[in-house]
Write a structure and sequence with these properties.
Helices cover 28% and strands 26% of the residues. By secondary structure, the protein is of the alpha+beta class. It has three domains: 4-13 and 287-367, Porphobilinogen deaminase, C-terminal domain (Double Stranded RNA Binding Domain); 17-158 and 254-276, Periplasmic binding protein-like II (D-Maltodextrin-Binding Protein, domain 2, 3-Layer(aba) Sandwich); 163-244, D-Maltodextrin-Binding Protein, domain 2 (3-Layer(aba) Sandwich), CATH 3.40.190.
Amino acid sequence: MPCWRSVRRKRHGASGTSEIPGRTLAKRPVTGIRPRVSRQGRLVESGVISAKILPVTALPNRIVIATRESALALWQAEHVRARLVAAHPGLAVELLGMTTEGDRNLGSTLAKIGGKGLFVKELEDALLDGRADIAVHSMKDVPVNPPHGFRIQVIDERDDPRDAFVSNRHDSVDALPAGARVGTSSLRRESQLRAHRPDLVVAPVRGNVQTRLRKLDEGQFDAILLAGAGLRRLALTDRIRAWIPPEESIPAVGQGALGVEFLEERDELRTLLAPLVHAETSWCVSAERAMSRALAGNCTAPLGGFAELSGSLARLTGFVALPDGTRLERACAEASWLETSPEALGESVASRLISAGAREILADAESAR
């Protein structure tokens, strides 16, 4: 696939506390001496960021995980609990189930009600007031600029990042007849689908995975598009009729990866999470998020980014588009991930997209919202 691509087609129709803005962060006692570590909080060895972290405080013997209460979110939280207990025998881990504004407000698309941050704010509040120690997220749902005082640590090897085509009657996107109705909650998926198949009817579908599958089974849609990783985690891969390659649908930034959020001052949690870190996945997701951050990306405009490694070579591909798919710009860049920071690669791709008109595209997409 070339490192750039432009799609344009004619439109159819037309004290004791520290302050965080809006929140109060209670200080916790420090019981150790901070070691000299890298800016990312990890040791740097021979140019490679290591997953090992020097211990700075005594590890806790009990932690509470804040999580959304959907089946997928609970699976992810249980997975992190199992990984932590395996890494730290004797550690007691409890779950705190919560319902977020993003879960409650299903009547509108995320772009119209405030973006993906609606899925994490209540969990962050639980970290601030001490009800929970960490929160588990799908990285694709985490805003690229977390609030001051919070840290996001990508953990585990990334699951399959591709989008999945789900249908009871058709084998693929290309097999859909003209006028077929396709459901998706993502402007990113919608824009790429419209660019590829402008003859389809694309409609929003909100709710958890099971709710979306039920709407498909009821005949409200001929097909729906979902993140394949979520279906895999819920043992629903039999519902996937086709995997959509990144060349056709660039994944969301962070798609397929898990992240753990905690308060920046909780140094002991960095040590606790160190055995769960997968350096390659962390590097790739950091590059994708750097690209999105440089573009001021959010879920109100179609944007995607996907980094992958082959030996020492890293390749990042990104895109921005108008929601109706009438304009879509792609760019990519390559570098040695052993010698280049993920931020540098992400900013390089963002710069190429900006040169291709990304700022104007995102502004137009925002004004059309």
